[in-house]
Amino acid sequence: MSEKNPVKAVTDKIAGALHGDGAPSDGPEDGVPGKPAPVSPQVVEPTEPVEPLPPKADQSGPETVSPTGQPTGADPARVAQSGAYLTTAQGVRLPDTDHSLKAGSRGPVLLQDHHLREKLMHFDHERIPERVVHARGSAAHGVFQSYGTAQTVTKAAFLARDTETPVFVRFSTVLGSRGSADTVRDTRGFATKFYTEEGVFDLVGNNIPVFFIQDAIKFPDIIHAGKPHPDREIPQAQSAHDTFWDFVSLHTEATHHTLWNMSDRGIPRSYRMMEGFGVHTFRLVNAQGTTTLVKFHWKPKLGVHSLVWEEAQILAGVDPDFHRRDLFDAIESGAFPQWELGIQTFPDTDDQMFEGIDLLDPTKIVPEELAPVKPVGLLTLNANPSNFFAEVEQVAFHTGHLVPGIDATDDPLLAGRMFSYLDTQLTRLGGPNFPQIPINRTHAPVNDMLRDGFHQTAVHRGVAPYKPNSLDGGCPFFAGADTGAFIEVPVEVPAGRKVREAPASFADHFSQARLFWLSMSPVEREHIIAAYTFELAKCYEQAIKERALGVLANIDPELCSQVAAGLGLPAPAATEPLADVRPSPALSQVGRTWPLHGRVIGIVTGQAMDMVGVNGVRQAILDAGMVPLVVAAAGGVLGTGSDTVTVQRTFATARSVEFDALVFAGVPGAGADAYGARDAKAGAPRPPVSDPRVLALLTEAYQHGKALIGLGGAEALFEAAGISVGEPGVVVTDGAQGMRQLMELLAAHRVWERFPAAM
Questions:
Q1: CA distance to 57, 501, 506, 511, per residue, from 356 (Å)
Q2: Which of 224, 373, 470, 636 falls 20 to 30 Å from 720 in CA-CA distance?
Q3: Is the keyword Oxidoreductase in the record (predicted)?
């Protein structure tokens, strides 16, 4: 997936952009996303009645199909609010919603106030139960375009050549509540709803290809262990506590997943830069009835990138909505996130093994060097939700939503998920008719003979919702394989005793964890060591720390000894022979280059700087498909006449963690609020070169491996921060050359040379 030279396509535009002849960019009018409404408001409250404003250009709602999957042809605006006047839920216009109906202005409120009753009743019931897991999430609409390369192994219609399928994709964290932060260390959900012509197909995956458990009966245990302690309800949205490490150090089948979580994969830079995996092995069926086993992969076109741990912690406080904001802003900017759907395929043998790997074990991967990932289609997210609750909160996924050509296997974790998801929707969404909620509606005709129940919005006809019948003319009829029926693959079921046990192949808990560790680059290994040390240091019980070190000893002695040193404990010896495995370079995030679309670049400047040059830099960034944010001492506009620049961030509001790189256009002066009582970031003593917060911004970005470009005399700023020009990723030059070097540095995501490894 890596492009040979991802910066070549944009560097040719830079010189022209810097001289004012760059082409306009797509996206928001000023190139900066985040405008809350389609029309800017006036200072005074509007009083002239107008119809509801349309959604912003980047927003869309579910397609307008009926509760039974029939296209209605209705404008999506027809299902939103309408009319210029405030009404009751019954459409009766109201003259006031600020005062209850009383017996005189100081008298008691009257029981007959139907508007008060309706308004409070609805408000009191606005919230539905949040998801037990994956409560914190965000989502977007898009389209999936099939390449047709999967047609030899599956008859699924949405994977036929040149087929386009609407999709809705939800990303999430596992452990946190709806109000938790986006950037916590956790597994992320990557769930895709395909509205295919044959019915809904849900690919309900994660950003980690393996799971903590091998059998769904253990799912309550791992979630109870990872959730906040039940007596104090802390800590929120993290695994750095005793109950989690107590469980995973005893339940060693969790070791492989835990190692992925402690790696940089546990703190992705963005949903747009996150891999997705179907986790389980599924079974494909082609038009001839031949079966193939398969694992699904989502490969981000921007590459797989992560935060560093300090960035993640800062962002949890500075911007807990960082990942959802990044997703929504990228779509609004026209930098549409894209992933290729890929498949690893395996012969459907009786033992369902491949190269000694049990394909039914959800704690195992098949390295891409053994089974390459074959691209089968392109996913593009191109529209944000128009209502978060109606779409993101009410969307309901289910691993049992399959279509002809894709079937389940006997993976014991998958079997439990097939059972469990419907229970979840019954509680959260108020009954069995959740498929009729607009975001969940199939785009295929529905004739299910299911009737009544809470929130039934279809108006069924006929008198015979049963089979067989003659009163409704025998309708609905059974379909066959030739008319698109979903027919389970008639696989042989192993004969044997009823037992509560796992196959012997499930007993290997360490070889693939060791494979993952050995596949990491030196800097990635350092991050894993730091993550384990941080998490275990948060545990209270010494016995849990010692037991966890015993698990690490069975992965790698260096990993174990380094974590033990950080905890001040002796490193135990391995209790099992270390596995002899071959590293998989595909698992590392370091060493390749990637496209730059949607990266956020801070341009730090001041009132006295050359605004023509700043505008040229800004346009060059836009032409490269990135988002420029101008940072100055105060908001408003810099410059005069036609040479002006709008400020998007101030020294008080900007932190380096928001940006992928920083460009310093000169040495800006101090802001009027640059003192500790107003802004603690300005309180530390600094050399009198610039605003102390600019120096802090520069220093922090340097520590996090960000590219730093200085223009127009910025050398003095770098020197004041103790950063030497010419160090890796530190460039002071003119505009055009600086932009070229910025592109080259960003393609590798970070300046990795700034992170020397001790190992």
A1: 51, 20, 12, 12
A2: 636
A3: yes
- Site of tokens 């917060």: 693
Q: Give whole-number Cα distances, 410 to 210, 359, 421, 488, 749, in Å.
A: 16, 10, 17, 12, 40
Closest Cα to residue 63, out of 157, 166, 201? 166
In DSSP notation, 608-646 reads: TS-HHHHHHHHHHHHHTT-EEEEEESSSEEEEETTEEEE
| Residue keyed to tokens 């270390």 | 578
Q: Is 94 exposed, middle or buried (0-12, 13-18, 19+ CB in 10 A)?
A: exposed
CA-based nearest residue to 247, from 319, 190, 175, 193: 175
CA distance 312 to 185: 8
According to DSSP, the β-strands at 338-347 and 374-385 are antiparallel
CA distances from 614 to 536, 577, 624, 646, 742 (A): 47, 60, 16, 11, 15
pTM: 0.93
Question: How many other β-carbons are positioned within 10 Å of the β-carbon of residue 377?
Answer: 22
* Unique residue bearing structure tokens 């699904």: 296
**Bridge partners for 295 per DSSP:** 344
| Residue positions annotated with a catalytic role | 134, 206
* CA–CA distances in Å: residue 589 to residues 303, 316, 415, 435, 620: 8, 23, 32, 38, 28
The residue-averaged pLDDT of 184-196 equals: 98
Tokens of 496: 């044997």
